[in-house]
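User: My collaborator and I are trying to settle a disagreement about how two of our proteins should look. Neither of us wants to argue from intuition anymore, so we agreed to look at predicted structures for both before our next call. Could you fold the first one, then the second, and keep them clearly separated?

Assistant: That sounds like a sensible way to settle it. I'll keep them separate. The first protein:
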Amino acid sequence: MNLPYCCKTPRVLVCWFFFTHYTQRRVHTADESDDGGYRTFILKARTGCTSFRPSSRPELSAAEVSPRNRPRHATGSDQDPGPNSTMTQENIFLFVPNLIGYARVVLALLSFYLMPSSPWPAVFCYLLSALLDAFDGHAARALDQATKFGAMMDMLTDRCATMCLLVNLALLYPSYAFLFQLSMSLDIASHWLHLHSSTVKGSGSHKTIDLSGNPILRLYYTSKPVLFVMCAGNELFFCLLYILHHIQNPAGWLHPLLALCGAVSLLKAAISVLHLVTASQNMAALDAAERAKRL
């Protein structure tokens, strides 16, 4: 140790020894682990001072030194769980109602592919896809697997399936193409605006919003037999129009059934108009409330 002669007195040497020994110990401890910095942080917070001597250094408990109690840094493992972390616990995409929804999508696509050439298999696949709509809801309630993803997929499958069938009907009945286009536009616009207004108001589905002010919509959504008859009659009406175009000598009972289902389809179109009006009023009321808060 190269020191000046004036520093080689016994008192100075003892002070120099303790200083270098304590400094090397602090550096060695900090290099081995990050406990040194964490200990220093806790001791400073406990004593309220910025420095302390080794002799007066208090001991820390095991709970204070535990890595679980240390301040977390902005690392991927310590941040809030992202969307993929939930999938390790519960795979929403493999829920039974969603699997039924995938089967509905496959059947609908198969029916669209068969419509130009094979009317009966196409209608079978289409009606089976529509019929499964009733089973996925029962499965969701029975298994407690109701999800927002499943509800959205369910509604989109219904809208897209009806729209594609109406496109084929517009090709088969060119003189009624405007009515089919109007039906498509009304169905999509009313459901989309109705769903959007219900989401803004805080509901998870367009079937669960407050309909106490509208008795028709309340009956339509709260009575399952009414909802089933309306949806089944509407789909059956369009399927009968498609089938009758491919049958040369249809049975006599098909035309009365077509007229009955046509009446149900007209009533459902009127409910879609009511959807559109009610959702527009809800959106206007929300806009008025927001403007009143700003003024």
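The second protein, kept apart from the first:
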Amino acid sequence: MSFFLALLTLWFGGSPAWAATVKRVDIHHDRVVIHFDAGVAGATALMLNGPQRIAIDVTGAQPGAEANRMAGGDGPVVRVRQGVNDTGARVVLDLAEPAIVTEGRFGAGGTTLTLALRTVDDARFARAAAEGRVRYLPPFSYGARVTPANYSVSVPVPPPSRQLALPRVYGDDDTRPLVVIDAGHGGLDPGAISPTSGLKEKDVTLRIARAIRDELLASGRVRVALTREDDRFLVLQERYGVARKLKAALFISVHCDSVGEGDASGASVYT
């Protein structure tokens, strides 16, 4: 019965179960290129132990005719295998030595996926396997078709307030310099979202902003204000407008970088 329900869901859903096929997989020394005969919805890469291998799950694709073959060459990949899972095709890279995916990107049209590989030791491979999946999405507009609108909806938007609500200033009201800290994103704008944990950039930036505030106040050398202290959305003009209105000596905007490997540390500073 469940089989027929699934079949009906696919039938009436308006799209085929497998919209694309894996045409071929090109193996280079430190790079793998997967070719599809049509655009795909996305892919994830996952490092697996026992034995060490890399699994690439491609949403909305099916295995190609060249399902299994030896890779050849002098790179870490010795064999390519293909299979299916619940969402599409799985391409498995069997490894001669531990290697991880450090970067992945789709080409124009979403018909190619290029993965950069780097050989590592067993401990680093184990950490990558424990970190879980890394998701890759094709360019947003590939194959997009504009559907003519059959109706329109008008939503009244109130004009912006002429008076900018100023935040609380922490510290004694004296002549010490004022530092305004801006926690990036917020409200309807989540910023970057972790593909493994779902953690939102807007929540991380607010925690960092509060931590910076507390450290600066503990120094006793400056006063501090935050552009936002909760989960709210501010336009760019409101953010730097707070600093200008308060005549701040320094404006700090906090954002979070995203990296493919997951072992980066430190900070990027733009002035």
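Some points you might bring to the call about the second protein. The chain has a mean pLDDT of 80. The chain has two domains: 20-136, 169-254.
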